[in-house]
């Protein structure tokens, strides 16, 4: 994955189950993934067989 846009597209398509949020309602606000959500996702992926 080379860009954050590609990651957002995968999340929106449902291929990666991570909640993305904006810190404010501005159109130009960056999207964020909370560290606790990322940690939970990585823990879940580590428990799944490859």
UniProtKB/TrEMBL annotation:
Pfam families, alphabetized: PyocinActivator
Cited InterPro entries: Tscrpt_reg_PrtN
Protein name, UniProt field: Pyocin activator PrtN family protein
